Amino acid sequence: MSAREPATGRQRGRIAMVSHCHYLADPRVRRQAEALAAHGYAVEVICQRQPGEPAVEQRHGVTVRRVGGAKYRGPSLGRYVLTYGRFFLQALATVTREHCQQSYAAVQVYSMPEALLLTALWPRLAGVPLIYDAGDLTSDLYTAKFGARGGPLAAALLRAQERWCLRLADLVVTVHEEYRQRLLARGVPAERLLVVMNLPDERLFYPRPRPATHAVASVAPPGTFTLVFHGTLVARYGVDLAVEAVARLRERLPGLQLRIYGDGDLRPRLVQLIAALGLENQVFLSPGYVPLEEIPALLAAADAAVVPTRVDAFTETILPNKLLEYLALGLPTVVTRTRTVVAHVPETAVEYCAPDDVEALARAIERLYTDPARRAALAAGARAFSATHRWADAAAAYCAAVDTLVARRRSGARLSHLRAATVRR
Predict the structure, then answer these.
(1) Vertex 82: Cα angle to 79 and 87 (nearest 5)
(2) What is the pTM of this model?
(3) pLDDT-based confidence at 425, cuts 50/70/90?
């Protein structure tokens, strides 16, 4: 049975997934949870709770249990420790209680930090296999966000907890080959590594006609050239650079607009920047988080997308989820030239520009604005890329790896013999 087909007959078992995320806004957790549910598992996601959200609900066959408080994204290291600590304790209590009531077949924990694996300590002591999803590496992101704050001791502690917890996991899932190589270097055996690219769900993200203006809320009026950016609003993703580029172009590119959908700690800076540059009529900023189900139609209403990531040691290694979603929609996209993006996405699919350079970003936007043929060629390249990088294929291999873990545990075989697998499509 494929990962897309509904479960029939006896369920395969009960799986917990623990992530300090907002479930409705985290496409990776949702994709994997829904894939396992469609494959026949009873899936429970333990995640953080936003104001106004129910403590427990069912979504697309997945039980969502929310604990802790809203996720913190600001600059305070102390606030991060407190919010993660509160979530850790409540997730630990929830996983332990639920496992005692009905045993889990496996538990998957998402970065960050790796220490969240310890929320599954009780099931692990009972022999339940643990899966760790290393979408980000904690020590790398800590350095990018806080620099040398905390000194050598903090860095050493992070590396120690990373090594210890990675050894605890029976399977480590990551997002691309460079991360796989880094994990190998940090002591994770090749047979316990699985690469599952951060590919968008084809049920939501697929080429679609541009909707009529009246059909989608907040879509720009006719006669405009609309750029779009969506996702978490933080400095490293560079959306403020896109705002500055629009300011430079507004005199010579009439009708140019930028529409930003998302939330994050960069919001106050964006509000101030838009006002200071007098861009209230050129830049739209959504009032907050936009549900994932609404995002594809909003993006499809744009002429082009922009991924202006700032470059540092961390962002050089990421393959942005938003970029892969734009490609799946067939949107011409301007993207910062970073090592990992260049390694995965050909020049035929995106318009590359130099990083951390507002003028270079503005020139790339202008090229797309003035050249419809270039936009059409990039749209075709984006569709070709997405046709060979499909979530359905990745989901099937991911579910098969989970099946192997569960079957080995039930048969008493050693989990360390899990066959190595790398999902590239």
Answers:
(1) 125
(2) 0.86
(3) very low
